[in-house]
Amino acid sequence: MLISHSYPEKDIYRIYHRASTGFVSIQSIRQAAEQRAEDFSRRQGKSFVVLGEQISQPPYILGNFPRIEIVFALIDKTEEVSRATPQQDRYVELEKLKKLLDQGAITQDEFDREKAKILK
To answer: Which residues 6+ apart lie within 8 Å of 40 measured at CB?
Structure first.
């Protein structure tokens, strides 16, 4: 799911990360991919904002190992705070909520209720 944005195509990048086994959590794969995006943006002298992600769904067997693709935009470090929009804030909240669900900290029902509140 990509959020709506006005970043030029030349500033949009993707990172794909896949576990080598099915015994790795999606959270650790996400952290590794986000670290790669952060390292890349730092080498470019910029910061980044996540526009969306796609993750594999369990069961993680028979080669369906945890994997993630993150779509992000490079932005100037001075623009990092000023370019945040309410739409991006909602996306950040949904991302945090999804991480809690993936970690088992909240149930699917709790996730659905909180998601509905955020999307109102």
So the answer is: 13, 15, 48
SS3 content of the chain, % helix, strand, coil (to 5): 45, 20, 30
Length of the chain: 120
- Rounded Cα distance, 68 and 54, in Å: 6
Give the span between the Cα atoms of 20 and 101, in whole angstroms: 23
pLDDT tens digits along 13-40: 999 999 988 888 888 999 999 999 999 9
For 70-113, write each residue's pLDDT tens digit. 999 999 887 655 555 555 677 778 888 888 888 888 889 988 88
| Distance, CA of 1 to CA of 33 (rounded, Å) | 17
